[in-house]
User: Fold this.
Amino acid sequence: MIILGIDPGTRTTGYGLVTKTGRDVQHIDNGLISPPAKSPLPDRLKEIYTQVQKLIHEFKPQAIALEDLFVAKNARSSLILGHARGVIMLAASQGHVPLYEYSPAQIKRTVVGYGQATKEQIQKLVKIHLRLNEVASEDASDALAVALCHCQHSR
Assistant:
């Protein structure tokens, strides 16, 4: 089973692809979707949507695992993040790929064993779990962690 993990953001959206065969999980790809920072929000959302569609078309995942919305201190930031999540959900729906959501604490508990893990801890453990040659970027590591979380919780 191929799983596309996504760490949503309007500035940078991380993605990570893994394949799960039995208990074995292997890294396929990871990276960033980074629309031009000065672009208007609708243009950044369109870019995220288009790039997620391309990932679905190219890798044909059987599941998309998305980090659930957390309530930020700034309500506006939460609303904008919700827009990014919405276009990702739309791409999943139009691509006929089941979507699963996991809270940040659930992802951290699954990958690191501690719900308050730091970004650095997530990066290190993702590298170890997937036997990567180097540490993936912060957003890509988060996306791979979401995919790993789905591997652990899916049947």
